[in-house]
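Q: I'm writing up a methods section and want to include an example of the input and output format. Could you take the sequence below and give the corresponding predicted structure tokens, formatted cleanly so I can copy it straight into the document?
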Amino acid sequence: MFDLETIRPIAVCICTYRRPLQLQRLLNTLAVLERPAGTRFVIVNNDRDDEQTRVLVQNFRNACGAPVSYVVETRPGLSAARNAAIGAARAAGAGSVAWLDDDEWPSGQWLMKLIDVQQRTGAAVVGGPVCPVFESGEAPAAKYRSLWSVQKGRLRGLTYVYCTCNCLIDLAAVAFLGDEPFSSAFGFTGGEDVVLFRRLYAAGIKMAWSDEAIVFEDIPGERATFAWLRRRWYRMGNIGVRCERAAPVGEPFRPLPKTLLLALRLVAYPLLHPRVFRMPRLWLLEAERIRGRLASHAGFVMMQYGRETAGQQQCAY
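A: Here is the clean output for your methods example:
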């Protein structure tokens, strides 16, 4: 086990938008989280300063016994919210930031497990798995449930952390990206975290993984459907093209040739990925991903988090 005295202060960061029930569950869990003495928390409300969220934060501040920064970021979009969290963490003297989404909750030793791997490997970025928790009676077939999870990634043979839903980042590693490391160009589409991690990867920043740093994610009934999963894979393809253009990592093909090769490969996809014979819907999901990429090349961008006209609400984080 690592020496707690040598750990620089860590800020656990949460960005939230109109999810009071989920946020309360997360804060209740964080209040009893095992953590180093120097840990502080940053909560960014990417909306107006509403009383309900303020009360939740104040109750959490009283319960956790640690410094809590509450930031209201009225500029819409995930990039603005995440950059505000980074700014608050730096202002509070944090050396690292740990990220969670507001519809998640960590296991009791989540943060300690991330820190342990960071200390043992010297990695500036450490990620961990996100396990889906389905509503009673709403879970998909068991063989497909892993498609809702976040698992260890690899890029060109190296461990690759690709999202902020469960990770620990040394702030010194992102200093070269300036005061706003999350690109505003991806604020409404999502993918701002993918671009960040691709830029870190391209800069040679070491990444590692902890299978024991487990986080759980709430999957409501409307998201536990194959139709939702198809939209998600379409979005992954649509954003993927823009991420590859914004943050190249020395891949062998540029985005358009890559898309064309993926489309050609689709014909033989079951032969290249035998698990399709057990999970045939993977073939259709891959087709959706390619369709999303083709749409991106044609100039169509999916606004996953766009705030629209009156009566329409931004997709929650």
